[in-house]
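ENTRY TYPE: paired fold submission
RECORD: A
CONTENT: sequence, then structure tokens
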Amino acid sequence: MTRIEDARAPVDVCLVVEGCYPFVSGGVSTWLDWLMRTQPDLTFGIVAITADSRPRDIKYDLPPNVRFLKVVPLAPVTRRPPAAQLDFDRAGLIDTMCKVLQNGDPAAFATLVALAETPLRRKPFPWVRTPAVPSYDELAGSYLCWEVMIGVYQRIAPHAAFADFFWAWRNLVGSLFSVLTAPVPPARCYHSISTGYAGLYAARAAISTGQPAAITEHGIYTNERRIDLVMADWLNDTIHGGLASRDTRTDVRDFWINSFESYATITYKVASKITTLYGANQSMQRALGATEDKLRVIPNGIMLEKFAGIIPEPRPRPTAALIGRVVPIKDIEAFIAAAAVIRKSIPDVEVLIMGPTDEDPEYYEMCKRRVTELGLEDTVVFTGRVNIMEYLPRMDVMVLTSISEAQPLVILEAGAASIPCVSTDVGSCREIIEGAADEIPNLGMAGRVVPPMDANAIGRAVIELLGDEALRNACGKTLRQRVETSFTSTVSANKYRDLYRELDVT
């Protein structure tokens, strides 16, 4: 039974999450649920950052050691702001905002935290001696905020379209103000599962309370936002620098990307510990200010005992399956195109797409149209959200077509069930399928790794595995052995217990 209790009692760890647990199932959310359940001696609170204030269905029963769930919307419902006296230095605030948005300056961010926690006197009753800190409405809706926005625009992006800058400001800085004005529940440490706004909240909590912050990144948030923004057709480029590409002017797309990178830099510099799932991610963390003494790799772990009872079932049709949300970053469209390639060689193939379809309804509709256009109605099946334990015995090959990943749990789950994988070359997928450079002895190939967004390569790799039972079984056996050796739940849980011990939580 889901419990949401009072956030006033201190907890050992306050987890700060953005756009996932407990409202989105699978992926990082599954990992978060695992993390809390493998640390039964610790108490947890959850601050879930959401895009807006709309009610959301909770997809998980919270573990028994969770004491509260608090939702922080980035775009809360606004009211007419009270007439607060925002006696902040305009020029100084412009300078501070530029340092936060473009330089990732933690001292400037600490200045904003202090300003957001400074009690104000409110008109029309200045004699009332009950000052309170600024509300979100007062900060985001004040005339001073408008003046500061103009000043930042003139300094950072004067050549960009102002209307586009205005909406970028509303999103980037409005969300920042939401993080700055949201209550901070008491905890012995604040553990964010990304940079972005979750990371800013953890950094703000660390500055406000003096307690440590830790960051764990699966995928690198800034890299994923960069991909989203580069591909975004709702952003219009208004600065054209020509073929030389030496133009140093800032367009609104650049402003978005630079701001997210600055937010990450602030988070890395304030955090006491920074973990990720595999070593290659650390180069991106270092590039944005993470120092070597804070960095650590903690791979995901899988609970092998859950998969002990899985016995392959007779399949009437060769089956390739993808487990993942139907969203662009998973590149479901490439899997659909690959299905057309596979069917040419294996006419009776069944292609399963297993995951929630409600996160991006427009993309889901586009994927369904693509299935129809390619005449794959009898080949491709969207199952929606399923219990994968019921489907694993039916799979011959697991496929992952993402354009950005970290260390996907679905590949480890496939390995636990001895199912070979075809994966795009993203995150740590090559290390899992082919073995890391330091794997001694190297166990061999556990599937195939292909370039992202290459439907033909994906299709050919699936055809190779479906068409060769001996190869398929050998790859599945290798993946199972690699998971047993390097990716167990117990090893991973112990490393997080050590992390919390170093943060003086245990």
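RECORD: B
CONTENT: sequence, then structure tokens
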Amino acid sequence: MRSFDKSQAFLQRAERVIPLGSQTFSKSRTQYPYGVSPYFIERGQGSRVWDMDGNEYIDFINSLASITLGYNDPDVSAAVAAQLQDGVIFSLPHRLECEVAELICEMVPCAEMVRFGKNGSDATAGAVRIARAFTNREHIAQCGYHGWQDWYIGTTARNRGVPVSTRELTHPFAYNDLASLQALFDKHPGQIAGVIMEPMGGTEPAPGFLQAVKDLAHQQGALLIFDETITGFRFANGGAQAWFGVTPDLATFGKGLANGYPVSAIAGRADVMKMMEEVFFSFTFGGEALSLAAAKATLSKLKSQPVINRLTHHGQTIQAGLKQLIAEHQLEDVFSVSGHPTWTFLNIRDARGATVFEIKTLLMQEQHQRGILCLGAHNLSYAHSDADIQALLQMYREVLPLIGQALDAGTLRQQLRCEPLVPLFKVR
């Protein structure tokens, strides 16, 4: 049996100086059941990572979908190493800022001008600020997950520290429910500056839904913003907007832009983006050259190699295999499969007397023992091999019937070697 003793001991040390021991909620003990999980990764190569205890995993989290090509991709690493010899940050802009912006404009349908940040939250907050400046309105309609900034996180259960006045300016609407968006426009006539949404999460858009959202936003004098932090450079080289054929006014990118290096982007219509000459969106490290070198290498590889085709093929194999296993073991009341092939979700429901979190905890307990790192979404990279995909399906072939048997016998809770996970907040 795998041990996680070093990880657990180091977590105690880290939590003395870092709240939760991590910089990211989704990488913390809130998401990994204590006693049966790793907490620190030492290194990664290709599709694999190794934890502090020396355990090896095939990684289907890929740093929350930011690794598109694989860990330590040779082309990206070479570009970063070469740039490192010339410097990281300078007193004036570097040519890479223009070169990467040109690549994005070439690849992304809505992109006529581009600005860079460091996190997806920078980009979404910047896009919201631009929309407000462009329309002279303050309210925002949103759907999906958009990061940690006040304007969005105030709408969630994790809203402590966000002023009520800020919370009152952002209004959620339901995906695939145009009437819920119309209701917001009716309630706040002439006040909504922008509609920001993930073009797709775990659920596919109903036929015509995305275009209808765009049409409604424009009829009401609002901008349409696609948050493509995950879907960008994963669904297609031009993002979900290219995949679905609906072009927004603005779009935000992050995770897939530089194969894990910290850079994000706002891209969009030139007349809207020109507002950034007046709107304050400025960081010392906005033009940091190592991340831009990584972005240039990543985007160039997306153009020259069949990255998206491989991700899609592997994802289709996972989806088909999972659906077959769920049906074979009569687990349709417990599990379902959804999402784009490059970002496939295994959904879990309360079932047979057990909660989602108890079931998920047992699944994670068993997958870690079998060398699979996964949080419920399969975030694929170009480095995943056919053998990696078969190893994932073999894990499910072993673990899904184990869960089914435990549910039928009423013994699932007893099979846990740890306390079950507890809810954080529902992201999507």
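NOTES ON RECORD B: The two ends are 34 Å apart (CA to CA). The chain is about 40% helix and 15% strand.
STATUS: closed
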